[in-house]
Amino acid sequence: MSLATLPDLISTAQTTEEEFLRHIFVRDQMAEWSKQPLIMERAEGVYYWDVNGKKYLDALSGIYVVGIGHRHPRVLEAIRKQFETLHFSPPMHGTNPLAIQLANLLSEVAPEYPGGEGWTVKFQCGGSEVTEAAIKLARQYHRLTGNHGKYKIISRYQSWHGSTMGSLGASGLKSRKTVNEPLAPGFIHVFPPTCYRCPFGKQHPDCGITCATLISDVIDMEDPATVAAVIVEPIGHTGGIIDPPEEYLPILREFCDKHNVLLMFDEIITGFGRTGQMFAAQTFGVTPDVICCGKGLGGGYVPLSAMLCRRTIADQFWGPIAKNPGFVEGHTNEGNPISCAAGLAVLQEILEHDLCANARTQGARLRAGLEKLAKKYGIIGDIRGKGLFMGIEFTRNPATKERFTNDFGLQVGRRALHNGLLTRFDPHWIAIGPPLVSTPQQIDDILGLLDRSIGEVLKP
Ligand SMILES: Cc1ncc(COP(=O)(O)O)c(C=O)c1O
After folding, report:
1. Partners of 219 in the beta sheet?
2. Residue range of the domain that includes 417
3. pLDDT (tens digit, 9 = 90+) per residue, 400-422?
4. What per-residue confidence (pLDDT) applies to 331?
5. What ligand 1 atom has the least distance to the C-alpha of 63?
6. How far apart, in whole angstroms, are the C-alpha atoms of residue 25 and residue 44?
7. Domain finish residue from 321, 352, 383
8. Which of 80, 150, 257, 314: CA 20 to 30 A from 223?
9. Is 423 in the pocket of ligand 1 (CB under 6 A)?
10. For residue 178, is it left (φ>0), alpha (ψ between -120 and 50) or beta?
């Protein structure tokens, strides 16, 4: 049986394409989107096809989600099989074996604490839900351990932790915040480690890593008795792939320990092999107290996210019922058995095929290719990222770092899309995050299409 195409659906609805598309909000600016609406119809491996039959090389894993590729038989089979036994378990009364199994596997693959302490996991459906859960965990943990006044969350400008009100409060993107203000109180923002354009006018390595050391001063100024947690993306995305200097995260770890503040990594993009290790915490050699992950865990097959916290923190929630309500947080679909079956299959696929190693190898190939493009065109000022999470910043003049004034990054990104290449683009940068299963040829194809797109935009 063939599936209905877009023209079939429009004709069944007895309407016009324009009217048909008016009933959905998309993430893009709607008026712009509807001029040339991108509507994907099917996908396979590292490729998409839109409703017009046009093929796209998915250099973004959807949006850093489809790590093991589209329509992977192992995951499809795991989902099919799970549907035959249990597709929903009552979340108010307990959980199901798949969720427990996946929690155990996550605890195994997450970074190790000395003594093999392990991790305890809270499942949700999306990234925003787990960053929000992490904020609640930090506040409840401090209450349970007698530090009732610790509630403030320190996060960074330009960050993105999600679109629910709490996670949005932690986020630092004015373009997404201002329109929703006032936001929840209790969030303090600091400058991120944007070394290429240091907010303090300094230069690494002679900068003293001011962006990190200042966080200790901020905790001091705010009063450590009021600060619950610091949350950062190990490599920031929305500011244009903010890859910190190697000293940065260890300094944060040290200050958080000093002030009894939880260090929380938002690994919703960086988790599950993207930076060349299972978690970026392992790439940077710094173990946080809490890891938020999502996207690559469900692989795009199911909505699935997870908040991992150190056992010693979780243990505080196991007290007697008279004094301890447990972790007060939950959603209807948490730990859904279909989602967890898919998550297990995705994770086993990453482990069995050592896709983290492939991310390192192909990431090195991608970086080398981007460096060649930088030499060829002289308009790439900086190449940032790790593994298969890379970004390039465009500059009119790399020597002076002068920016383009014509939304050059957007032009290149749109041209790339026209040429059949899916990337993430902004006025000044482009990010690339292809599936972990990408082959050398596919990496070369990405570079080829990018090369062509930059060349076409630069043509007088
Ligand atoms: C780093 C980071 N954190 C949190 C989120 C929010 O995740 P979701 O959109 O699944 O709610 C995102 C989404 O892009 C993200 O990139």
Report:
1. none
2. 38-71+354-458
3. 999 999 999 999 999 999 999 99
4. 96
5. 14
6. 26
7. 352
8. 314
9. no
10. alpha
For residue 391, which phi and psi values (nearest 5 degrees)?
Answer: -140, 155
Predicted confidence band of residue 3 (pLDDT cuts 50, 70, 90): low
* CB of 241 closer than 8 Å to CB of 209: no
| 268 pocket-lining for ligand 1 (C-beta < 6 Å) | yes
- DSSP 3-state assignment of 385? strand
The CATH code of the domain that includes 166 is 3.40.640.10
Q: Residue 371 sits in a domain of what CATH number? A: 3.90.1150.10
Ligand 1 centroid – CA 291 distance (Å):
13
Partner residues linked to 302 by β-bridges: 299
Q: Is 295 helix (H, G, I), strand (E, B) or coil?
A: helix
Report angle CA 197, 200, 203 to the nearest 5 degrees.
Answer: 60
Return the bridge partners of 394, or none. 380
Of the pLDDT bands very low, low, confident and very high (cuts 50, 70, 90), residue 335 is very high
- How far, CA to CA in Å, does 443 sit from each of 99, 422, 424? 35, 13, 16
Please spell the DSSP secondary structure of 211-242, one letter per residue. Answer: HHHHHHHHHHHH-GGGEEEEEE-SSBSTTT-B
Same domain, residue pair 343 and 208: yes
The verdict on the CB of residue 224 being under 6 Å from ligand 1 is: no
Indicate the helix (H) or strand (E) that contains 425: strand 424-425
Q: What is the helix, strand, coil percentage profile of the chain, to 5?
A: 40, 15, 40
- How many angstroms does the Cα of residue 270 sit away from the middle of ligand 1? 11
Same domain, 337 and 400: no
Domains held by the chain: number: 2
Average pLDDT, the chain: 96
Condensed to tens digits (0 to 9), the pLDDT of residues 54-84 reads 999 999 999 999 999 999 999 999 999 999 9
Distance CA 455, CA 448 (A): 11
- Spatial distance between the Cα atoms of 24 and 128, rounded to a whole number of angstroms: 21
pLDDT of residue 456: 98
Separation between Cα atoms, residue 358 and residue 308, nearest integer Å = 25
294 Cβ closer than 6 Å to some ligand 1 atom: yes
Amino acid at 256: C
Minimum-distance ligand 1 atom for the alpha carbon of 129: 11
Q: Is 12 exposed, middle or buried, given 0-12, 13-18 or 19+ CB atoms closer than 10 A?
A: exposed
| Half-sphere exposure for 57 (CA within 13 Å, toward CB) | 20
